[in-house]
Amino acid sequence: MRPTNITRNIGGWLTEAEGHYLYETAKKVKKGNAIVEIGSWKGKSTICLGLGSRDGRGVKIVAIDPHTGNSEHRRRFGKVNTFAEFKRNIHKAGVSPYIESILDTSENASHTFYGRVGFIFIDGAHELKSVWSDWKLWFPKVIDNGIVAFHDTWHYPGPNFATAIILLTSHHVRHPRLVDTITCFEKVEKNFFLDRIQNTCFVLYRTLVGFWGAVKLSYSSRA
Predict the structure, then answer these.
(1) φ/ψ (deg, to 5) at 199
(2) Residue 30 CB neighbour total at 10 angstroms
(3) Does this model's pTM top 0.90?
(4) I want to staple 131 with a disulfide (CB 3.0 to 4.6 A). Which of 93, 106, 162, 196 is the partner?
(5) For the chain, how many structural domains are there in total?
(6) Is the Cβ–Cβ distance between 5 and 50 less than 8 Å?
(7) CB–CB of 217/13 below 8 Å?
(8) pLDDT at 1 over 70
(9) For residues 92 and 130, is the Cβ–Cβ distance under 8 A?
(10) Which residues contact 111 (CB under 8 A, 6 or more apart)?
């Protein structure tokens, strides 16, 4: 069963391809490493990660979210608190044993997390300052050959600009990939010239085709 069959009725913003990507990537993370999710909302993406961990090597998923909504959520919905619904959803999906919920901001959580990160999914506040802070705080915790993924990287300026700058300037990332609105890549100790060429070409490619992922996301969303 595809993970999105389980998460279809859960509020959130995730396409079927994105959910499947999270599931498959989580499934491959090796024991001794953690999966970190920044921004959980009501657990849609968390469940995809949890199902992947369950069907893979059973690694811990650290789900970080104050559950009071980011600035965009508060503009759209007013005052929110999604933690109770988040807990109900992950329990119903049977992935609670794999999830460690941290009811805090990404910045605060980063100061008390000392584990090795095999895969990080960054989907917190989308302002450039927040996205860049998540990157700077958490990238050093990702192991070499670990995977970094950002959500909403075509239609939100913050994730779009941050990932473009990373791919165009960093000597520590390679093999970028676009899954609808997710931009993901691998961390390495040092990339090569051809990797940097590929990274640059990917940014141009995403600019041209990323629109379709954003359209798919708009039809897959429910608050």
Answers:
(1) -60, -45
(2) 13
(3) yes
(4) 162
(5) 1
(6) no
(7) yes
(8) no
(9) no
(10) none
Residue-wise pLDDT for 142-181, tens only, equals 999 999 999 999 999 999 999 999 999 999 999 999 999 9
- Rounded mean pLDDT of 62-73? 85
Which residue is it, tokens 């989907």? 123
Question: Is residue 213, in this structure, part of any structural domain at all?
Answer: yes
Domain extent at residue 161 = 3-218
Structure tokens at 103: 């009811």
**What six digits make up the tokens of 112?**
């008390």
End-to-end CA distance of the chain: 24
The Cα–Cα gap between 100 and 116 comes to 15
Identity of residue 60:
K
Model confidence at 8, pLDDT cuts 50, 70, 90, reads confident
Asked whether residue 94 is domain-assigned, the answer is: yes
Closest C-alpha among 47, 60, 42, 38 to residue 20: 47
Q: What angle do CA 173, 218, 174 make, to 5 degrees?
A: 5
Could you tell me whether strands 61-64 and 99-102 are parallel, antiparallel, or unpaired per DSSP bridges?
A: parallel
- The DSSP annotation for 45-80 comes to HHHHHHHHHHHTT---EEEE--SS--HHHHHHHSS-
> Which CATH number belongs to the domain containing residue 67 in this structure?
3.40.50.150
Give the pLDDT of residue 80: 83
Structural domain contains residue 223: no
Average pLDDT, the chain: 95
